[in-house]
From TrEMBL:
Bilayer-crossing regions: 12-35, 63-90, 102-123, 150-175, 196-218, 257-281
PANTHER family linked to this entry: ABC TRANSPORTER PERMEASE PROTEIN, INNER MEMBRANE ABC TRANSPORTER PERMEASE PROTEIN YCJO
A cellular component annotation (GO) from this entry: plasma membrane
Pfam families named among the record's database cross-references: BPD_transp_1 (PF00528)
Entry-linked InterPro entries: ABC_transporter_permease (IPR051393), MetI-like (IPR000515), MetI-like_sf (IPR035906)
Membrane topology: Multi-pass membrane protein
Keywords: Cell membrane, Membrane, Transmembrane, Transmembrane helix, Transport
Protein's recorded name: Carbohydrate ABC transporter membrane protein 1 (CUT1 family)
Similarity section: Belongs to the binding-protein-dependent transport system permease family.
Residue ranges of domain ABC transmembrane type-1 in the record: 64-278
Amino acid sequence: MPFRTRSAYAFLAPYLLVFATFWLWPIINSFLISFQNTRVNPWKFSLASNWGRLFGDPAFYNALYNTLIILVIQVPVMIALATVMAVLLNSPLLKARPLFRFAFFAPVVVGEVAYAAVFRLMFSIDFGIVNKLIGAVGIAPVSWFDNANAAMALVIIAVTWRWAGYNAIIILAGLQSIPEDVYEAATLDRVSKVQQFFHITLPLLKPIVLFCVVLSVIGTMQLFTEPFLITNRGGPGGGTETLGLLLYRQGFTSLNFGYASAIAYTIAALAIAISLFNLWVGREPK
């Protein structure tokens, strides 16, 4: 092996050691644990105790259903909203654009516990501002934390509020990479702004939007914070329990590490499958 190659590996060795110890080995070990019954001492190999249980567990199917509902509703709404926000932020007519960009990105850096507490106060049935506003227009107050559908809507609203601005900044970067000559030529051809958006902007933004969709899919499959903190650990009655929350409950409440590992690998497999499907749908035609 040449000296330069040995030197390169020598410099990489500390990182590779940390990577293998704290990332690679835990992944391999958790996969092995998913095939063991961790409710007995010592642990024993048992395929049915984890993977067999997984496909017959009503709690798993409930969590999978809730996760997919959030995925199907929240991700498209958030990406559409982020695209509109990015277009508005890119408009030369908008004054103080850096301030607005920071304001839209700010929810990402807000502490999760703090923002969850604010949402619980805002949507309180007794003194929440949201119920006061809808009551002002003659709509009965909504019990956001006692009704499963309302709680699910609350989770979707919270996740959208937190991540729409983040995706808008990514899409904004894509917008700024589109050459102005394209729009100038379209304007000379008397193409309206609406037609430019649908026939120029969106096609050129397709890779960026697809990137945001894939990131959002992966994030949604792991969703934990909002159901845990806002709707009180997936309540009411498991109505907002996601796969991430079920994994936590099995691993750190029930201490069933084998079943939790099986759930974790199922989440990873589903996230990969859905992301690959999105990439296949959004691929460029040959």
